[in-house]
Amino acid sequence: MIPAKVLWLGRQKYAAVWHAQKELMTKVRSGEEPDTLILVEHDPVITLGRSAKREHILVSAKSLAREGIELFEVERGGDVTYHGPGQLVGYPILDLKRHGRDLHLLLRNYEEVLLRTLVDFGIQGRRFPGYTGVWVADEKIAAIGVAVEHWITYHGFAFNVAPNLHHFQLIVPCGIADYGVTSLEQILGQAPDLATVRERVIEHFAQVFGVKWTNDGLNGI
Hints:
BirA Bifunctional Protein, domain 2, 3-stranded mixed sheet, 11 strands
C-alpha cells in the first residue's frame, strides 16, 4: 500500500485551491509530502481548460457576475466546465512514478472511483465511449480534467451531488452540446449528505489506487 493523505478543505474560492495544488505538487515531487487527495466544494466558478472555446460560454460576463460566477483559465485538458456548491471536487496530487506512467489508466481509475460511489447510492453509472467522465444514461454526472507536470498530477474530477444545474445551462459543459448534465439529487429526488458522499469517494479512491490514508482528512489549507 502506498502512503497517502486526504485533505478536506470545505468550501473555497477556486484560486485559493489552485495555488494550494501548485504548492503541494512541488512538495510531492520532492518527497516532502506523500500523494495527496484534496477534496473541496467551490464557490461558483467557470473554468476554461487548454482547449476551451470562448463561444462555449453562452452568456455575457455581466450575466455571470449577476449569478456570482467567476471565470478562471487553467492548465487542465478539456473545454469549459462549472464548479459550485453542492459539487464534490477532487484534486489528486499523485506521483505517477508510483502508479504507472499511464494517463489513460489514470482517467479510467478516476472514473472507476466515481462509478463505485454511484453503486453505493443504488445508481448504475457508465463510461460513454468517446468521452471522458461518468454518465448516468445519457447525462453526465462527473467531469474529469487533468494536468501532469514531471509526472505529478493535478486538477482532477467534479462529482455532481446537488449543484445548481441551471448554472450548467450557461455553458456548453465540456464542449458537449448533445447531452445533458445530472446530479445525485436529480436522480434520487433528494440530495444525499455531501459528507457521506465524500467518505464513499475517499474509501473507493484508496481501493482503486492502492493507497493507505495516513491522516483523518480534516486538515485545511
